Amino acid sequence: MQALKDRILAEGQNLGSGILKIDSILNHQIYPDLMVEMGREMAKRFEGIHIDRILTAEISGIAPALTTGMVLNVPVVYARKKKPITMAGPVFLETAPSHTKGGDVPLLVSAEFLHAGEKVLIVDDFLATGKTLMALARMVQSAKAEVVGVGVVVEKSFEGGRELMRQNGYSHLPIEALATIINMDNGRIVLAE
Amino acid sequence: MQALKDRILAEGQNLGSGILKIDSILNHQIYPDLMVEMGREMAKRFEGIHIDRILTAEISGIAPALTTGMVLNVPVVYARKKKPITMAGPVFLETAPSHTKGGDVPLLVSAEFLHAGEKVLIVDDFLATGKTLMALARMVQSAKAEVVGVGVVVEKSFEGGRELMRQNGYSHLPIEALATIINMDNGRIVLAE
Questions:
Q1: Is B190 a domain residue?
Q2: ipTM value > 0.85
Q3: How many helices (H) and strands (E) does chain B have?
Q4: Chain B contacts of A27, Cβ < 8 Å?
Q5: What is the pTM of this model?
Q6: CB distance B20–A86 less than 8 Å?
């Protein structure tokens, strides 16, 4: 998606160790027009696939999941990383290592908001190691629902997450990224064509 | 906003101690159509006021802030509650007590995303004690920007947040709530007309 790639090159910063700072457009600040365009593009990538629900993870997955959900007109559920006092009843619980915060982070979804038989599109901000996305996918399976696709705003292909998912039971799953970064060595940010 | 009030009465649960569970529409699951309608209504409430930017707090403020920002066509910034590794440079830091998680929660906004002279609309999910909103307002003041309004999805008027804000330097600020709960005693959820 060209508008996104342009913005990553204009505003992104390579902080080293594979850490990409694009908080001006995704992780701290949001330009609503760009976010809406991302949602439109994301929905388009999964055209023809039946989707009942979008699952994402707080925090930075919420905005692209919402704008995608606006196009698809399906409910969006965001996995919580801390159990709020309002989360009563059974939950699906998985853990994934955090890329930007260190340590393992739990992901929780109320059983109320993932139903058996649903076709679920997983949307998130980044595909890096794939571990958060796989934790979300495990939740969907625990709910006896089906993951029908994975869409991310930015993939860092050099971290191998796509291959990890392919090797772990998701070999036929469509995985779409709106922008793909193929190299961040030596302070660069190299995007795929 | 009638559609929101109807949904609160249909899906809301009074968990006691003033805790309202409406995670099916606001804090865990989002119906995009309802969220877009909320954003439209929120923008309408501040018609005629110049707004340069929306400030909210993660997590549940993001969705209503985004849909409001879509209408106003201004950037949205969400205060973080933990410093991510991508947050480099100076930050505005305030703390506010958490209603649903206990303890004090820090709120951080990069100085990059709040500018002197900007007119800022604060949007959040709840107005309860007003302490989170006042922490956000203090950040705006630290940035030498100006709070021009506060909009929330749900106000719990019996917690006195509006009065607290009125008594603490925000006596002339427009404060808008899309739904107002006036009483939660004895398991009830009583909405204002």
A1: no
A2: yes
A3: 5, 11
A4: 84, 86
A5: 0.97
A6: yes
